[in-house]
Write a structure and sequence with these properties.
single chain; about 270 residues; five-stranded antiparallel beta sheet; 8 strands; alpha+beta; three-stranded antiparallel beta sheet
């Protein structure tokens, strides 16, 4: 018999216990953040106050602009204000005269025995008037001659356009420049240094502007502080300006009208 002892099999070791997964910690509410958010959320009362403040700001801005616009008249001299009133009175009288003339035409047509002849004569007179306004007919009458010298070539088309607008506001009925360009409603001004292009024509210094109208009003408009003469003789241009009132100004330059491509007469509203 053998002395060897039977081998006993080893017992398996028990598995190690698994580490439990830690539970998430509950999130603590951020009270400071909540208070900040609540502060940025306006209440109904705060919204109303904001709207009222915005309206007050708008009113203040408008008032400041109105006050600035009135400063030009508040700082003007008494003579300048009188000149402005004279110009407005002249325009009023001119419009009243036109109204009276139209009423006279209407009465003449209503009472005339030969209405066709009367209408023809009035139509011819109207054609002559419109021809002067359109620049297709020469004109003469009292007015001014303004001579602008620009030795440094600093005048621009905007300077000349401002001069034309000031004369029109003062009641100018017909205007020409350098005796070669008739100024009408469609006249355009462009920079063409040295000089200015007007309706495709080159015009150089000295610029001679002739205008028909009430000569005193036209001269006052040109000499008004901050107006044409001040602008040309100021440091920006450095030129000279001469304004002469004349009993008779002859406007001989004519405008060649172009046929309209798109505009057509509209039907009369009475038909």
């Amino acid at each position: 018999m053998s002395d060897e002892k039977p081998v006993t099999p080893a017992k398996p070791e028990p598995p190690e216990p698994q580490t439990p997964t830690p539970m998430p910690k509950p999130r603590t509410p951020n009270l400071a953040l909540r208070r900040l958010r609540a502060g940025f959320k306006p209440s109904r009362g705060q919204a109303i106050v904001a709207v009222v403040l915005a309206l007050v700001a708008c009113v203040a801005v408008v008032q400041v602009r109105v006050n600035r616009a009135d400063d030009g008249y508040q700082n003007a001299r008494r003579e300048d204000l009188i000149a402005i009133l004279d110009g407005l009175g002249q325009n009023t009288r001119r419009l009243e005269s036109e109204i009276a003339d139209l009423e006279e035409r209407k009465n003449s047509l209503s009472s005339s025995a030969d209405k066709a002849q009367t209408a023809r004569e009035q139509a011819e007179a109207q054609v002559r008037t419109l021809g002067i306004l359109a620049g297709t007919l020469p004109a003469q009458g009292p007015g001014v001659r303004i001579t602008l010298n620009d030795p440094q070539g600093k005048m621009t088309s905007s300077n000349l356009l401002d001069a034309i607008e000031e004369l029109r506001d003062a009641g100018a009925e017909a205007i020409q420049i350098n005796g070669q360009v008739r100024v009408v409603a469609s006249t355009d001004f462009v920079d063409d240094a040295p000089g200015i292009g007007i309706d495709g024509q080159k015009v150089n210094s000295p610029y001679v502007i002739e205008a028909i109208g009430e000569s005193h009003n036209l001269a006052e408009a040109a000499n008004f502080p901050g107006g044409l003469v001040s602008e040309v003789t100021g440091p920006q241009v450095g030129g000279t300006a001469e304004v002469n009132e004349l009993e008779t100004v002859a406007i001989t330059a004519l405008h060649a009208p172009e046929e309209h491509r798109y505009a057509r007469p509209a039907p009369s509203p009475t038909k």
